[in-house]
Amino acid sequence: MKDLKTTKGTMGGLELSATLSITAKAKAMKAAGEDVLSLCAGEPDFDTPEHIKNAAIEALKRGETKYTPESGRPDLKEACAEKFVRENNVPSSAAQIVVAAGAKFSIFSAIAALCGPGDEVILGSPYWVSYPEMIKASGATPVIVPCSAENNYELDPEKLKAAVTSNTKLLILNSPSNPTGAVYRKETLEKIAKLAIERNFMVLSDEIYEKLTYEPDFPHISIASFSKEISDLTITVNGFSKAYSMTGWRLGYLTAPKWLTDRICALQSNTTSNPTTFAQFGAIAALKGDQAPVETMRQAFARRRDMIYGLMSDIPGVKCIRPQGAFYIFCDISSFGLNSWDFSGRLLSETKTAVIPGQPFGADGNIRLSYACSEQTIQKSVERIRGFCSKLK
Ligand code: PMP
Ligand code: GLU
Fold first, then answer.
1. CB-ligand 2 contact for 88 (6 Å cutoff)
2. Per-residue pLDDT for 4 more than 90?
3. pTM score, two decimals?
4. Residue 333, Cα to own-chain centre: how many angstroms?
5. Ligand 1: nearest atom to the Cα of 43
6. Which residues contact 194 (CB under 8 A, 6 or more apart)?
7. Residue 331: how many CB atoms within 10 A of its CB?
8. What's the 157 CA to ligand 1 centre distance in angstroms?
9. Distance CA 29, CA 103 (A)
10. Which helix (H) or strand (E) covers residue 322, if one does?
11. CATH 3.90.1150.10 domain residues, the chain
12. Using CA of residue 51, residue 57, residue 63, residue 69, what is the dihedral sign?
């Protein structure tokens, strides 16, 4: 008899997302009455702006409860394409847009529609936890190129060049970065674009944290904006979760060359179909409506960034780079002689402070702290971390 429990297909062996599972564990401890402070959450702590919620409520009331085209409503795709052209200088059209149930699915479907067994996908580490799992799900092989804090966690174009082979199909970039908060500089992106054109591989640029940058010297730049040659090789991914505090709405989108969006549409038409219809009306309101709430949230994150960076870098034995974007800070805790799971596990059990270990981001010896929480939570939890570190020393 075949063993139904141990045999599995390419997608049956994926790891649970460490970010989601540790965040859920901290929430459950808190719900059970424990005094847990969580620096885990990869989601803004603000409510979705009112005009966005109202647009979805109105749509629901009007009876917008039926299927739409699998890649999204034509007016939403038009709004996404306009946004890419207007804000990012990335060539796009409605036919080159696919809206999905979250940027996570946009990234997954782009990788799955492009890559398969025998293909290599290059990724700089630290990387967002889900990328290697998605690559493995497609049957392709992740090729990891380590990046260093000294180089602002950017991929070194020379190291990238050395990792490219005739099997390289795709490079994944994420700027601003989860988990490091680093923002790529233009010179680096230009060198990477040149290499992609010379060696003929595609680039998936995950720009979901685009709106959250804090340094005039480190603006967000879309790699696909440089030339037609590179935009013809780029999949640019964005979403509503971070910019508009819409994590639970599950809406993301991408633009790519039409030959690839056709394939992604086919994949989506046989899997999720369209993202939730009335939620799409909220998405249109987000893109076309008042952008002031985005700036208000960005300013709050900027203040918290300064606060957490100041407090964490003041702890003896902890090293961190000043994040230029997103809402994470990545701290080197290797001087304490514990791996990142042991460090964060003991931190949680001994001080009731939850952080994400660096190992699932491909960078053990580090921890990721999210500052998508109140200034008071930041202050109190860093005090606990400081006490914990002083005991370890
Ligand atoms: N990319 C990165 C780097 C992320 O951190 C996240 C986290 N949510 C996503 C993509 C996916 O976002 P969502 O599916 O909520 O749109
Ligand atoms: N992306 C966020 C994080 O890294 C949310 C959780 C997830 O989707 O992985 O924490």
1. no
2. no
3. 0.96
4. 23
5. 8
6. none
7. 24
8. 25
9. 28
10. none
11. 18-43+292-392
12. positive
